[in-house]
Design a protein that fits this description.
six-stranded mixed β-sheet, mainly beta, ten-stranded mixed β-sheet, globular
Length: 277
């Protein structure tokens, strides 16, 4: 699959053009205004050997378009991104230092203990932007991203894993852990339904949001969430899926001396889907 780094406003390559309907729902091509559809997302292995240093990558761009912004370009806009890690059994926490590379941010995670590590990124220091021409208005954008990985060592079982709890102001939490610590696997398999729940400031999200789920081949599914912020989807192929949710909070204010009409929250959850093997 071809990878595109942004080197100019018109540089763009689409991974696929979609034209049909599958049993799950409507699948569409993505047509977006430049920059408005950008999000942060993680790129981490699903399972690593305990004790192995893990490279944690965070991209900014459009996952479904294989578009990663680059240093010296729009990646610089996310230079205030912070990375927080919640360790096995939620007993350890750490803030990892991110280094800006050519087309991503990079940190190294130490996995001294077996178990699940929850990775969470936030950029809440972005300047106010005027998206009036896109029908959004003058906004303060805030970006969030979440992912999980399992550190595994044969014959070593960590403490019982607790249910995932919301940690970010706008958070997407997997309700099915799809985790077998004894076998060393993390992630559902194709055709298994995956429920997730959206939270806003610690409570189930009840507002209106744009929800997109991107498959590794660029296909898109747009599900609904219920009154408790719970949504579901069924992946068809193995690989990395990204759930991307945007919420426009109509709460005016000022940030860094500039007035805005609303806060635009954008969150992602990266999910590994294992092969049947």
């Amino acid at each position: 699959m071809k990878l595109l780094d942004r080197t100019g406003d018109r540089a763009r390559w689409s991974a696929s053009k979609l034209s049909g309907v599958i049993a799950m729902g409507l699948l569409l091509t993505v047509v977006t205004k430049y920059g408005v559809a950008h999000s942060l997302w993680f790129d981490v292995p699903a399972v690593v050997k305990t004790g192995q240093p893990v490279p944690v990558k965070i991209y900014f761009g459009e996952y479904h378009e294989n578009l990663r912004e680059i240093s010296g370009g729009r990646l610089d806009e996310r230079s205030n991104t912070k990375l927080h890690v919640l360790g096995p059994a939620a007993t350890t926490t750490a803030n990892l230092r991110l280094k800006q590379k050519q087309n991503h941010f990079l940190a190294t995670l130490s996995t001294k203990k077996s178990g699940v590590y929850d990775l969470m990124a936030t950029d809440n220091q972005s300047p106010v932007v005027d998206y009036t021409k896109y029908g959004i208005g003058v906004i303060r954008p805030i970006f969030y991203a979440r992912a999980r990985l399992l550190a595994f060592k044969k014959d070593e079982v960590s403490e019982r894993t607790a249910a995932v709890k919301p940690q970010l102001d706008f958070d997407i939490v997997p309700l099915t852990r799809a985790l077998d610590i004894r076998a060393g696997t993390l992630g559902s398999t194709p055709k298994q339904e995956i429920p997730f729940q959206v939270f806003f400031k610690g409570k189930p999200f009840t507002g209106k949001a744009e929800i997109s789920i991107y498959a590794p081949n660029g296909w898109l599914w747009q599900p609904r969430i219920d009154a408790q912020g719970i949504g579901r989807f069924t992946p068809l192929w193995p690989g990395v899926y990204v759930i991307d949710i945007v919420y426009l909070e109509r709460e005016p204010g000022t940030f860094s001396g500039k007035a805005y009409e609303a806060i635009r929250h954008r969150a992602t959850l990266t999910l590994p889907i294992r092969d049947f093997k």
